[in-house]
């Protein structure tokens, strides 16, 4: 790595984690994260005001920790970047205000980065240059989106998005309903391994309709099924629900890839840590001759 | 000495710079929805207006509220991060006290600001301007008074606060002057929310299935 490459500090507060990253050139030096997941756990989902309060408290300590871990000081920073959306408005504002203050205080330029493009950029840091064009499937508690990426700094086109709940939100709500805890993604993943994904035929919403998603009907279907069949096993319900979500995500991602003639597919967002989604996406890409890039689970949020 | 003061606890985004002898520059814009956009440029403007360099700042002061949460946090995170970037201390002061410093009532008075949801943030002061009650949050009818009342309260709830006095909003120049004078009750730069986060925890999630 070039020691004289510019040092960029990035701030991310779009959801329930306060993130500060330091990048020199194309090398990620450090990625410091403070999470308010435990505080949200008692509410069974992300509460915007709780997240915003936590961002304010975590901001300066996380900045300081990132610099300490990277062996630099704030004064060494050449530019500041911040995710400017989409995300929770009140939470985003804390990060944007912090980034602006940092830029003013250091006398350095500030760049706003679309949160979704930032996910893709993270992947590029891990895997090097992305094949062009690439489809990005971003799934988290805050968004479920399909993007076409020509290049991270320039053209990122939104092809499809959820029309109601984000995929991660559906995981959270169903996990809470099943009494499996929060965050819902890993909780369901753990239990689903022991269940039969074909035990219950949950709906695959909007299967033939464009590239948008809908997950709120699926959540309702789970609730209705369990009320009608209180004897059914949690493992089977979790496995069948997870299968329904993953089927839709993989199906739409490949449909998008075909539509734009993409050569690669990247996965990002918190739900990218889901083991079923990872394996099924890898298999599907292999069949269609697409290069599939999966972030390491730690980089997913 | 060069004190940079910021308050975003009300619709006013107010920033000022004080050199220990006088206020060198100040900027106040009333716009409840644009705190994030306005505050950093206001800091730049105030520094430029005073012909000062950011590295000359020796302390940052910030109004800690009470005030509507989202706007309040913008000022606090700005002040804290500036403190870290400039390696200078950050002081807090109750924003109602900042309003009180500009009141000339000639007797006891009250400061009441908008807390949304049909409530006000308020505090009571004696003739010398010392806070003797509050800060608290409550319904206008419950804190109604004939005493002089500063802040937005009288404009929003004239039946509860018929005796309006100026100012309506805090001014960062008063905050900076208070810090410089050493006569203010300074507190850590922590938000005064006075309300818990909106959400109430749901009842313990009950497993619905036989496990
Ligand atoms: Zn995300």
Rg over C-alpha atoms of chain A, rounded to the nearest angstrom = 20 Å
Largest sheet of chain B: 5 strands, mixed
The average pLDDT score of chain B comes to: 92
User: Ranges of chain A with pLDDT <50 over ≥5 residues?
Assistant: none
Task: Give the largest interface.
Answer: A-B, 41 and 36 residues
As laid out across the biggest beta sheet of chain B, the strand order is: 3-2-1-4-5
Give the ligands present: zinc ion
Strand-residue proportion of chain B: 15-25%
What's the count of strands of chain B? 9
Q: Estimate the strand proportion of chain A.
A: 15-25%
Q: What is the CA-CA span between the terminal residues of chain A?
A: 25 Å
Task: Please estimate the helix content of chain B.
Answer: 25-40%
Overall shape of chain A: globular
Dominant shape of chain B: globular
Q: What can be said about the biggest beta sheet of chain A?
A: 5 strands, mixed
Oligomer: heterodimer
Low-confidence stretches of chain B: 199-211
Helical segment count of chain A: 9
**Fraction in helix of chain A:** 40-55%
Care to describe what's here?
The complex is a heterodimer of chains A (301) and B (211). By secondary structure, chain A is of the alpha/beta class. Chain A has helices spanning 37-41, 48-70, 89-106, 115-127, 167-177, 184-192, 216-228, 234-260, 275-288, and strands at 7-12, 17-24, 27-35, 79-83, 110-113, 134-139, 144-149, 156-161, 264-268, 291-293. In chain A, the strands form 2 sheets. A 5-stranded mixed β-sheet of chain A has the order 3-2-1-4-5. In chain A, strands 8-7-6-9-10 form a 5-stranded mixed β-sheet, with helices on both faces. In chain A, β9, α9 and β10 (291-293) form a beta-alpha-beta unit. The longest helix of chain A is centred in the last third of the chain and has 27 residues, at 234-260. Chain B has helices at 35-49, 69-86, 95-100, 153-156, 172-181; strands at 3-7, 12-18, 23-30, 59-63, 90-93, 109-114, 120-125, 131-138, 149-150. In chain B, strands 3-2-1-4-5 form a 5-stranded mixed β-sheet, sandwiched between helices. A 4-stranded mixed β-sheet of chain B has the order 8-7-6-9. In chain B, a hairpin with a 5-residue loop joins β7 (120-125) and β8 (131-138). In chain B, α1 crosses α2. The A-B interface holds A 42-44, 47, 49-50, 52-53, 55-56, 59-60, 63-64, 74, 90, 93-94, 96-98, 100-107, 176-179, 226-227, 230-234, 237 and B 35-36, 39-40, 43-44, 54, 69-70, 73-74, 76-86, 191, 193, 197-199, 201-202, 205-211. The complex binds zinc ion. The site of zinc ion has 6 residues of chain A, from α4.
């Amino acid at each position: 790595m070039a020691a004289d490459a510019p040092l960029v500090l990035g701030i991310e507060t779009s959801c329930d984690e306060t993130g500060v990253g330091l990048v020199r050139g194309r090398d990620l030096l450090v990625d410091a994260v403070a999470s308010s997941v435990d505080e949200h756990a008692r509410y069974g989902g992300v509460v915007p005001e709780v997240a915003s309060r936590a961002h304010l408290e975590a901001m300066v300590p996380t900045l300081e920790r990132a610099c300490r871990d990277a062996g630099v000081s704030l004064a060494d920073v050449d530019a500041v970047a911040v995710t400017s959306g989409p995300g929770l408005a009140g939470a985003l504002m804390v990060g944007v205000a912090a980034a602006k203050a940092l830029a003013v205080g250091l006398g350095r330029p500030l760049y706003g980065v679309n949160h979704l493009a930032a996910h893709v950029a993270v992947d590029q840091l891990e895997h090097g240059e992305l094949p062009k064009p690439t489809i990005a499937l971003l799934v988290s508690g805050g968004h479920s989106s399909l993007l076409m990426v020509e290049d991270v700094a320039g053209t990122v086109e939104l092809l499809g998005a959820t029309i109601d709940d984000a995929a991660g939100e559906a995981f959270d709500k169903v996990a809470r309903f099943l009494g499996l805890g929060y965050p819902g993604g890993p909780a369901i993943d753990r239990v689903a391994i022991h269940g039969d994904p074909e035990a219950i035929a949950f709906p695959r919403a909007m299967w033939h309709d464009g590239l948008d998603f809908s997950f709120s009907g699926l959540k309702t279907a789970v609730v209705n099924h369990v009320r009608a069949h209180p004897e059914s096993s949690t493992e089977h319900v979790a496995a069948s629900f997870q299968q329904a979500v993953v089927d839709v995500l993989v199906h739409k991602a490949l449909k998008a890839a075909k539509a734009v003639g993409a050569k690669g597919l990247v996965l990002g967002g918190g739900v990218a840590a889901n083991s079923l989604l990872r394996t099924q996406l890898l298999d599907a890409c292999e069949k269609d001759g697409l290069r599939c890039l999966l972030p390491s689970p730690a980089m997913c949020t | 000495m060069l004190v940079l003061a910021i308050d975003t606890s009300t619709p006013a985004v107010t920033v000022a710079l004080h050199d220990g002898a006088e206020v060198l520059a100040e900027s106040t814009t009333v716009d409840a929805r644009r705190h994030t956009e306005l505050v950093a440029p206001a800091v730049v403007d105030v520094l430029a207006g005073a012909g000062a360099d950011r590295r000359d700042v020796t302390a940052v002061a910030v109004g800690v509220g009470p005030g509507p949460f989202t706007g309040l946090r913008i000022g606090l995170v700005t002040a804290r991060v500036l403190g870290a970037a400039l390696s200078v201390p950050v002081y807090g002061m109750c924003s109602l006290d900042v309003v009180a410093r500009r009141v000339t009532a000639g007797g006891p008075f009250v400061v009441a600001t908008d807390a949304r949801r049909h409530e006000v943030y308020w505090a009571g002061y004696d003739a010398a301007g010392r806070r003797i009650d509050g800060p608290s949050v409550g319904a206008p009818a419950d804190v109604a008074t004939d005493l002089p009342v500063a802040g937005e309260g009288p404009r929003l709830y004239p039946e509860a606060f018929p005796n309006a006095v100026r100012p309506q909003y805090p001014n960062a120049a008063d905050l900076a002057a208070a810090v410089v004078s050493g006569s203010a009750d300074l507190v850590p730069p922590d938000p005064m929310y006075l309300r818990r986060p909106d959400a109430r925890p749901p009842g313990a999630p009950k497993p619905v299935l036989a496990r």
